[in-house]
Structure formats: structure tokens, C-alpha cells
Amino acid sequence: MHVRSAKEHLRNRFAAAVAEVDHHDVWQRTRLTVAVVTREAGEAERLLADAERYLASREWELGQVERDLVTLDD
């Protein structure tokens, strides 16, 4: 229920695609992948930073955060 709520908030608030990608069998822990599509890299970084701050401001304890930028040239 909490993970579903967090995923919906990220989708609605940041127009992000969100997937639960690990720890499916443990309700106290999960790993999420969040993806955004923007015209500029700076905007994507801002959205992801805002999403990270949003989760940290809730009852979530964040672990390691990784960011990868993929462009059309890649």
C-alpha cells in the first residue's frame, strides 16, 4: 500500500514513469526506478532531485541513489 502510494505520487507530481524493480518479497523494502523525459538535461536533473527530496520528506528512508542520463545520441 505504501509503495503503491509513493509510485502514484511520483507519477502524478513529476510525470515520471515508476517501476518497482527489486525486493518484491519484502514489504519493508523496495527498489524503485524513476524515469523522466525532458527536452533539456538540467530539467531532468531538477525533476529527479525534486522527486528524491519528496520521498525523503515522507516516511521513506532512502538508500543509494543513482542517476543516469540517456540522450538520443547514445
Overview of the structural elements:
The protein has 74 residues and is an alpha+beta fold. Helices cover 41% and strands 15% of the residues. It is built from two helices and two strands. A two-stranded antiparallel ribbon has the order 1-2. The model has no long low-confidence stretch (mean pLDDT 89).
Radius of gyration: 13 Å
- Strand order of the biggest β-sheet: 1-2
Q: pLDDT average, as an integer?
A: 89
Shape call: globular
Number of distinct beta strands: 2
Largest sheet: 2 strands, antiparallel
End-to-end separation: 37 Å
Question: Count of DSSP helices?
Answer: 2
Strand/helix succession: HEEH
Task: Bin the helical content.
Answer: 40-55%
Structural class: alpha+beta
Strand content: 5-15%
Ranges where pLDDT stays below 50 over 5 or more residues in a row are: none
